[in-house]
Prior knowledge:
It contains four helices and 13 strands. It is globular and about 40 Å long. Residues 227-234 have low confidence and may be disordered. The protein is an alpha+beta fold and 234 residues long.
Amino acid sequence: MRVISYNLRKHKASGELLNLTQDFEIDILCLQECDTTDLPETLGPLHLADATKGNRLGLAIYYRMDRFASHETKTFALKKSLHDLVLAPAHERLIGIRVTDKETDHELVIASFHAAPLTASNSLRRNQIHAAHAELLGMGAGLMTLMVGDFNYPFFTKNLTEHMKNSGYELSLSDRRTYTRYKVFKGHFDFATSLGLNIESVETLPRGASDHLPILVTAQYGEDYGPIQGITES
């Protein structure tokens, strides 16, 4: 399974989506900071599953209809930062889709996530990540899960990795930095958390019109497919 995650920087990189879809032969496309009123229904073989409704610049997911059957999509509001409360840039910070792979009959949940900006604390972003995982578990407890997006977490990622392990999830960084616009804030902003999947690689793709670089996640289904035990929501 090949998944691209891309923060479009207020929709500025939207013109690159069709080429990304075709050039990298992806199955899922997860977007952040897209103009949800200006998204095409299809991008090559990908179909728009759903997009957030609470804010114009939001999240969206596309999926390959010839491979996956979609059962439901949901959007979620997470704990707000001071930035959210004052400027109200984002009401919904998570969108998930539950699908079945027609080729293998595997069922899984895939999500696009956008954490609070760097003006918020790492503890608040960890709260949002844990809350997002809990919401996705509600879409299918024990199902394999992949959550990709802009985590806004370039510092102390080792600490975050330990938090993820303690809650049963694997955090996967890309092979190169995903944000290099400002010298102070260079780092891995965009990555993946997963449950029950084998992440083969997370590749940072070439820069486009966004200040974020897209990432390509390649994943295999875990050998022991089925309800996964011992997963906590915090």
